Every structure is written in structure tokens, then in C-alpha cells.
Amino acid sequence: YRDFFAGSSVLEDHASSDNSFTFRGGWDLSHTPTIASYAFDPADYAMYSVALPTDTSAFVVPGRLPSIGLKASLATPQFKRFAASTSVTAGSDVDFFEADAVQRRDASASVDWRPTRQLRVGASYLSSTLKRSRDGMVVARARIPRVKTEYQISRPIFLRLIGQYDARTRAPLTDPRTGAPLVTGVPGNYQPVGESRRNDVRLDALFSYQPSPGTVVFLGYGNSLDEPDALTFRRLRRVNDAFFAKVSWLFRS
Predict the structure, then answer these.
(1) For a disulfide at 197, which of 95, 117, 166, 169, Cβ 3.0-4.6 Å?
(2) Global pTM?
């Protein structure tokens, strides 16, 4: 889940051990301990300055930071109508925006439910949290629930609905050495690297009609929304809509 928060290149040393166990009945358990360290390229942070009470100073990139973590996951057997999996990750890590040490907590879960031969529902949830080691403040958080429903209405007709909520927050950046705010710009026109947040909702629908091999009709609709407060569904605002259609017809001679 590092891609949620990574924004710069790093020099990385990394060692891990993947351990997996399969039990009677098809249950899978795995755990992966990881040891790593990161060194930062000063060029990636050249745009930052430190806003001290009386002046500004250059941002000093810290030395190599260590990281130790453990990921554990559990998956059920593939039952006739149901399957599920979950995983958790915990340990020390690095916040690449601030070049600072953090504590990381990740969790994910997914469920695949097939109540009938025609209907299939898949649901998943992912959360990832970074908390500063030096002051305990949550500096970054991502929460992403997703639901996909597929229904085979008849042999040639298929319907798919997908809904996903992407909620992410990022605290204002501060200097790891002094705790002072980080700013960008030039003297006389500095701008703090402030808080950022996004609460994006995406809804997609697809209708498929395939009466014979080589002949198919796709009709789709997508809708993007957002709201100011995460996962409240109270003040949703439509951002954009999209429609598409595709028709393929096979002529035989």
C-alpha cells in the first residue's frame, strides 16, 4: 500500500521472508516479516523550506531511516457459494512526503458471495494509516470500500454494477527536526504545504448483450461524485458523468 503515500524516489534496502501454510480443508495462512531502510535524495526535497518563528531555513534531509514490519493474512477455502480473505500489516515505516519515521497500520478484507448461479457479489475494504513516531499524530490515512455486483440475466444478457469510495487525508507537512511547518515558494511568497483531503465516489454500470459469438453490444455509464466529509453520504456533489457504447457485429458470408 506504499503507493497511497509515496511521492518521491528513495534508496531502499529491503529484506523479507514469505511464509505460507495451507491447512486441511483449504485454509491459507501466511505471514511476512520485513526489515528495510531508506535513504532520501536531497534533490527531491529542494522545493521545501522550514518556516521558523523568525525566519526560514533550508530543509535538511535526514539520514537513513530503518523500518521493521509484519504482514499476516488469512484466506478461507473456496466454498460453493462463499470465499473470503483478510490481512493486516503493522510496524515502523517511512513517510516519504516528510522524510520522517512513522508507525504504519494497514488492514484489508474481501468477500466473494455467489448466492445463485446468476448472481455474484464481491466486496472489499482497505484502510491504511501512517502515524508520526515523534508526536503520535496521524499524518496520512486512506479508506477504500468497494462493491461489485454481476448478474447473468440470461445467456446473452449480462449486467455489472461497481461502486467505490476513495477517502484519503494528508496532514500539513512539518520538519522532522524542529516540528515547524514546511513551505514552498520564494522569499516573500512562501506557501505552507497544508492539509489535503479527497472523498471520491465512483459508480459504474455496464450492460452487455451477446446473442452470438462475434456479435456484442456494450452500454456503459459512469458517475463521479465527492463530498466534504468522509463516508457520510450527506452532501454528495456530482463531478462528472460519462456514457459509452460499443457495438460489434459479425457478418457471415
Answers:
(1) 169
(2) 0.88
